[in-house]
Write a structure and sequence with these properties.
Bound molecules: protoporphyrin IX containing FE
Helix content: over 70%
Low-confidence stretches: none
Largest sheet: none
Mean pLDDT: 96
Number of helices: 10
Strand content: under 5%
Order of helices and strands: HHHHHHHHHH
Number of strands: 0
Number of domains: 1
């Protein structure tokens, strides 16, 4: 059975609902003081994990569309990717606002000093660039450069799981599982990595 445009519309509506539900669920936990002894840290974790989940789901769309021969599924990538950026920005906002109380100089020092923070910042910058250039008018103007830039999403997922892995001090099982999922999704893009390493070897 082929996925139709109506199915895509329904799927987009579900994605919006899921995001809205997640947002209100977090507000509810906060309002009911159910976020434990350190609610700010818990919020940072919740938002970071949600951003990463959306990133992994976004990256699973193309292999799914290809393997199931459902090209219309590709239309879901943009909305999922933008939600990933939304959650990542909230994650960053809560950190700067509630954890650092807008001490931007301290924030910059942390980003430079702590490697896991540097990786998070690089991930966020890539997601920002991808979100801005997802605007149709910009995409059209960029032509082939758009595709080159959007390949950076592969690096962003690698950076994001490394940021997660590096940020936890113990209990490495869950970040390890995220790492494995990331590698499986990147293995689906092996042709890109092969051509990239081929070009690099030619140059050096
Ligand atoms: C400038 C950008 C970023 C900063 C400053 C930042 C900061 C942080 C901090 C402070 C933590 C908690 C570490 C701890 O528990 O001690 C964290 C965890 C995390 N971050 Fe980020 N982050 C950034 C970007 C991102 C992005 C873009 C993503 C995903 C796309 C992400 C995903 C995560 C995840 C999954 C965790 C672990 C959550 C958990 O332990 O349950 N972060 N980040």
């Amino acid at each position: 059975m082929k996925v139709s445009s109506t199915d895509i519309l329904a799927a987009k509506a579900l994605i919006h609902l899921a995001a809205l539900f997640t947002f209100f669920y977090l507000l509810l936990l906060l309002e009911q003081n159910a976020l434990g002894a350190d609610p700010v840290k818990e919020m940072i974790h919740f938002l970071g994990k949600t951003a990463l989940n959306f990133l992994l789901i976004t990256l699973s769309i193309s292999p799914l569309a290809r393997r199931c021969k459902q090209p219309l599924l590709i239309q879901l990538r943009r909305v999922l990717g933008l939600y990933c950026f939304f959650w990542a920005s909230l994650h960053l906002l809560v950190f700067i606002w509630l954890e650092l109380d807008w001490q931007l100089q301290l924030f910059m020092q942390e980003v430079v000093k702590r490697p896991y923070m540097t990786l998070g910042a690089l991930t966020w910058i890539i997601l920002l660039a991808l979100s801005i250039t997802s605007i149709t008018a910009i995409r059209k103007k960029m032509k082939r450069a758009w595709l080159t830039l959007h390949r950076f999403v592969y690096w962003s997922v690698l950076l994001a799981v490394s940021h997660y892995y590096w940020s936890v001090k113990s209990e490495l099982v869950e970040p390890g599982v995220y790492f494995l999922i990331c590698l499986v999704l990147l293995a689906e893009r092996k042709d890109y990595f092969k051509s990239l390493s081929g070009r690099w070897l030619q140059k050096n």
